[in-house]
Amino acid sequence: MKNLERVAKAIAKQAAENPGVYNYAIPDLWDNFGYAGEEKVATHDGHVLVNPYHFYYSLIRDVFLARADKKIDYSESFYTQRPIDEELKNGDWIRKSSVYSMMIRASGSFDHDRTGSLEDRNLYKLKDTGTFIKALALLPNLKKMGIDVLYLLPIAKYSLKDKKGELGSPYGVSNFNALDQGLKDPITGDATTVEQEFKAFVEAAHILGMKVIIDIIPRTNSVNSDLIVDHPDWFYWLDLADLPDYRSPMVPGLKAAIPAKKEYAPQIYASEEVLQHIRKIRKNPKQIDAKKWREMIKEYKSEGNTKEILDLVQEYFKMTIAPAFSDCINDPQPAWSDVTYFRMYLDHPESSQPFLDKLGHFEPYILFDVAKSSFNPGTQPNKPLWEMLSGIIPFYQKQFGIDGARIDMGHALPLELVSEIIRKAREINPEFTFIAEELDVVNAADSKSKGYNMIIGDGFMREPRVYDGLFNSFVYGAMNLESPLFACGETHDTPRLAARNGGETLAKMLTIFNLFVPNAIPFLNSGQEVFERQPMNTGLDCRPNESEMLDPKDPFFGKLALFDRFAFHYLHPDRWEFMNLIQDANAIRQHILPALLDKEATYPLGFSAPWDMAAGFGYRAEKKMILVIANTDVFNAKHHLVRLDNLPAKYLGSNRSIRQIFSSDKNSVWPTIEIDSYLNINLHFEKGEVKILEIE
């Protein structure tokens, strides 16, 4: 709480030094705590005009500090001072959570001076792009919607060298232990650092009962990494002249985008294109000329130097870092110009060495097998690198009190390194939770055995495909998996639900139903709650025109939040209606949460035929049975016969009453419901409607 108080004090000081700022615009969604500043003016289009200093100071004082318990140190991890559910220990508390994915830079963005562009320094000398302080304004609404975990996309310092888009990707991390200075808010002046402002953000989240999870990227690093200075041997190098033609080599005779399993080694190393590729790789420049390297580092560290480390390497040695590319064989996507792989082993993969021995000497190189070291480990681990990588999470635990992490590309890391990362974090906090970037549900049990608490899963691929039966296969199959997974229709890498076939009706149906999928954790992607159409990235399952989902006249047409200046469309006409629906549905979710975690209290519902466009579950909650049923046809209203013969007989007696208690559609018919002699009920649904019924 000390950092929140420090931030509030700094804002108050700046308010006194910057009087007369009254037309700073925020979306009305941010005015969610009863701000009562006398200068406040609400416009007809959803803007609210405020004094920014007074608004953010009041937000911190009235929403966070006023609720804080002085006996609790909110800067520490959530469960260090709170009781632990004995049945959900060792990080398994994530099973009862609802997660919101937030990219601070984009989620906290808004055109505050209404000039039509997002500026680093607007008319009020403040930021339009997101900061930790501005992101605080989202938390009250998220709390109302039942969100209790904030999953933050990378917040570490990233490089602008060979950047993608206007701002660069936060996944191009150049220093794990430094925060992105772009997330520092000028509203505090110089009185607080970006580190203190992140600490204040974590404290605020903890006060509201929210945990904070971060994304770490231990497999890759920026091609312009700060680590190059002291550890050029941790990277892969090539001549600068070879960079323009650098790409993933093709392997004849193998299919496209297949995993780099060791059984493919004979074909890989028989490919002339592969051999040409790995012959381009060079020793690291320090190894080539140690004296020249020392001269270069001296210039880099000299006062007044403005050149990046990679610029100097290219100037002195005519060499550069070898960019990374997909760890799948024959993946058509180009090399990733902004990031590279770490050199995890000092030798070549053990499975590849017999082929290399016959072909001659090669310097350490990037190839599919090297990139997928979980399948193809070497025999000599790069121990100093592993020590650094396994220390990233402990740094954030000790400095910022985070509660969990997702390990980006963890499936490709050496298994021993993954174990070390998890072990070190749990030594500090046994309740630390880990999310595996595992998309294949077949590997759910394997991920759990490695120490992960859950997997991401493939909901974002299957859920939107309701007409292919994939939504039903996902929601009915989730309860039988060894590990829980995300119930999600979109992520920061995928198309937006509101831009899929079915549009906002599909988005509403999936968002509400995902609150009730057994053995699954509801996942809301930032902007999903306002029917955002523009993807943040075009990484997975995207169409050729995916980046053009907005009106061409929209200022963010063609832009991607992961790389560009972007603000979500917080002024969507139905913003309040949708968020209120989520809030109402979550209240029911909280009531039946024990049943959602208990397979024995969960009853899949059937319909008149397996191919019916419908899905549903019954949940036993104390003396009641709650039925959650969706019409998955998002284009047509439907009558559905719902079979209740799977429910315990005591809920089906003649003395039981059944009534509708929720609908996702404002035009829903709330009928009198009777169970027929065949233990069925007949219901009318609007298109994409989710109904919740209660039997008591």
Architecture overview:
- It is a single chain.
- The protein is 27% helix and 17% strand.
- It contains 22 helices and 28 strands.
- It has an 8-stranded parallel beta sheet. Strands 21-23-24-28-26 form a 5-stranded antiparallel beta sheet.
- It is globular and about 90 Å long.
Features:
single chain; 696 residues; alpha/beta; 8-stranded parallel beta sheet; 5-stranded antiparallel beta sheet; 22 helices; 27% helix; globular
**What is the number of E strands?**
28
For the residues shown, what is the average pLDDT? 95
The unreliable regions are none
* Structural class by helix and strand composition: alpha/beta
Radius of gyration: 27 Å
Q: What would the principal axes of the Cα set say about the shape?
A: globular
Main β-sheet, in a few words? 8 strands, parallel
How much of the sequence is in beta strands? Answer: 15-25%
Distance between the termini: 45 Å
Q: Total helix count?
A: 22
Strand order of the largest sheet: 18-17-16-8-5-4-20-19
- Give the helix proportion (percent range): 25-40%
Report a brief summary of the structure.
By secondary structure, the chain is an alpha/beta fold. Helices cover 27% and strands 17% of the residues.
Structural topology:
Elements: H1 2-17, E1 24-27, E2 41-42, E3 47-50, H2 52-64, E4 99-102, H3 104-107, H4 132-135, H5 139-144, E5 149-152, E6 156-158, E7 173-179, H6 194-207, E8 211-216, E9 220-222, E10 237-239, E11 258-259, H7 265-268, H8 272-279, E12 281-282, H9 285-288, H10 290-301, H11 309-317, E13 319-321, E14 328-329, E15 339-341, H12 353-359, H13 368-371, H14 383-389, H15 392-400, E16 404-407, H16 415-428, E17 433-436, H17 444-449, E18 454-455, H18 459-462, H19 470-477, E19 485-487, H20 503-513, E20 520-525, H21 575-591, H22 593-596, E21 602-604, E22 606-607, E23 614-621, E24 624-631, E25 638-643, E26 658-663, E27 680-685, E28 690-695
Parallel strand pairs: 4-5, 4-20, 5-8, 8-16, 16-17, 17-18, 19-20
Antiparallel strand pairs: 1-3, 2-3, 6-7, 9-15, 10-12, 10-13, 11-14, 21-23, 22-25, 23-24, 24-28, 25-27, 26-28
Helix pairs in contact: 1-2, 1-6, 10-11, 15-16
